[in-house]
Structures are given as C-alpha cells and as structure tokens.
Prior knowledge:
Helix content: 40-55%
Number of strands: 8
CATH architecture: Alpha-Beta Barrel
Largest sheet: 8 strands, parallel
Strand order of the largest sheet: 1-2-3-4-5-6-7-8
Structural class: alpha/beta
Order of helices and strands: HEHHHHEHHEHEHEHEHEHHEHHHHH
CATH topology: TIM Barrel
Radius of gyration: 20 Å
Amino acid sequence: MGEVAIPPKIQLRSVVKTSNAILTPDKPTTSPKEPPRHTTMHNHNTPPPDDSTTFTRTQPHPAVKTSKNMLSPDNLITLPKAHLHLHFTGSLDLATLAELAQSAHDKAAAELINDGALTVPATVKGWFRFQRTYDLARRVVCTEAAMRRVVQQAARNDAAEGVRRLEIQIDPTSYAPHVGGIIPALEIVLDEAKAAAHATGIQVAVIVAASRMRHPMEARTLARLASKYAGQGSGEVCGFGLSNDEWAGASAEWEGAFRIARAAGLPGVPHGGELRGADHVRQVVTALHPRRIGHGIRAAEDPRLVDELVASQVAFEVCPTSNVQLGIYPRLNAVPLQALLSAGAQIALGADDPLLFHARLNAQYQAAQQDMGCNLAQLAELAASSIRVSFAPDSDKARWLSEVAFWRTAQLASSQSSPPVIARSVSDEAIQKSNY
C-alpha cells in the first residue's frame, strides 16, 4: 500500500481532558463564535426531567395494548439484522474492559466497571461527561493486541444477537500513537475484522470516521487513507464518517474529505441531529451528501425535513438508549421513532456505545417494542431496513432479507396460536444502572 502523506503540524480543535472531573457536574465552555453548548437537551414536546422521574419505569407506549405479541430476548436473537452504528472502544463489554484495564495497569479505566461510581442523575448527564468517560475507557486500548481484542469481542457479541453484518466505526488517529501511525492502526483493525468474520460467521466491515474535534485537513488525510482500502466485504472500509461533538465546527468544513471519500466509492455516514436539532441535520445533509446519517433523530422536529430525507433516500441510524443517556429525551418512550417510521424513513437501530450505555443492539429492539410502540411487523421492518441500508453486497442483502421475511411469517403465526410471552425489555431502570 502506498504511503499517505500527513499534513504537518495538524492542530487539534480542542482538547478533551481525562481527569477526576468525571465525577463532578459538567461545566461546558462556550465560544463567542459558536452557539452555546448544552449538556442536556430535550424534545420540545416533553418536559425536562427531574431526578425523581427520569429513570423510573414508564408505562408501555400507548400503541402497546397487550403483552400477547411481546417478543422474548430469544425471539430477537433469531431476528436477522445489521448493526451499523457502533463505535470502536464503545463496543466493549465490561468484562473485556476489565481485562484490558488490568493488562494496561490502568486503575482509572478500571473504575468504569463499578456500577455505582459513575451513575449520575439525568440532569447532569450530557456530551462532555460522556466524552471524558469514553476517553478513560480508550486509554486501555493501547496495544495491537488490545485493538484486535476489541474487534474480536464486538463481532462475538453481535453474532450472539443475530447480527448478519457489523459495520464498526473507528478514528484511527486515536490509536495511532500506540502502534506506529494511522496506517498500521487501520490495517490492524481491518486484518482483525476479516479474521473475526471468519471466526464468527458474520460480516465485519469498517467505517473510518474523522473527528469534529480535529482539523478538517486531517479528515482529508483519513479519507485518502480509507480510500485505499475501500470495499464492501469483511476487512474492508465500507464508508466514511464524521463523529464527536456536533457543536464543533461547521459541517461544510469537512466537505472536501467527504468528496475524496465519494470519489473512491465510499458513502458518507456523518453524525448529526442528536445533540443539535433539525437545522443541524439539514446542514450536514446539504454539505456532506450522506447515504446515512448517524442518529438524525431530531429531524423529527421538522416533518418537512423528514419528508425530504425520505425522498432523498437518506437513512437514519437511530440509537434510543444513547438519546436518553445523553439527556436528549427524558425517557425511552419520548424518542420519536414512530414519527420517523410513519414518514416512511429507512432506519437502522444501533447501540452506539454499549460499554457506557449498558444496552446492546437487541436492547434497542426491545425498547422499540416496549417503549416506542413498535409491533411485530415494525420490528421486522426495522431489521430489514438495517440490512437494506447497509453497505453489504446486494447478493448478501437479498439472502438476509429473505431470512427476515421467514422470521416475520413464523413469528406472526406463532403469536396467533401461542399463549402470551412476557418479554424482558431494556428499560429506564436498566438505563439507570448505566455506569457513565
């Protein structure tokens, strides 16, 4: 592979410190040139949460009139699906984090394993606390072996939940200092993705994501690097993203990087519309021309925008647990998933960062049914949609979609002839135990 030139003296847009401040309420700074940054946001139609009500068990969504058709976790495991919104270090489970922290002799990261240590009320949860926690966890992913372990475990965990294809997202810059640069960092992940796919039987592709916290020129370097490994299969780069704090920078500054990626056949999957509202979604889509938008849930605040995105075939990667954990919505049944579904949006549910949110992919499907009113047919459609908007080869999509259709038929038949099944669901109570 050819060398990728790195622009000299890349300047970070900001530095996120990892310190004991994680245990105290956030004090975000504001810039006169940017809109104020908020640690907590809420849907305009829902009241702000308070410590006593935010994470209590809510009643099921009004659309859920009976438990007769509620699916058990075992039912969801058999539902074929794709997982398209999963961050690298955030994909870890607590057991693997503990193992890596011990290997790295990192006591700070080990503190994340204590369920009570970092549990805080929703009123002080927000982006800056989340980012510092993520940075603490990332400190233990400091060797090639640790990077490979992250990929292995992500594939194993998703295979156990019925995932057919995983598209895991990474910014190689974050791990480059430990392994000799961004090229070996990416090649390690791609090599292990191919091995993990062989070991688990699921496809494991990679999305290279630039960070809004770094200079846009660095994003162009990453886009050129990603282009050299572009493809649809396991162990290949299938897309190009933009992540981190949505309040940092103007989306148009990254247009050049996304243009480079598109020229190499890499579709765009930038984040937008979680921390910021519908106007931000419009800015991201206009500037970066994505095929999918990471989150995008707050587009629901502007029905006209949702209709435009549906007409343009821009898909949504919706991560309900993340939305609640970051304080965007006070509880799961306030996440406007049904508004997007009613508009005909293509949606892929995602776990985002299960290490910090304590809810993996199938928990999002459980929440969609129990808290957001999705019936069995809608759950099947969410799974099918995740496959359709993945970047897998068409032949694989067709096979998996036929499996979803078979699952739907079998489940509908079973629901009409079997006694009720009470399903466990990801709940606000479970979210309260989150360790971020």
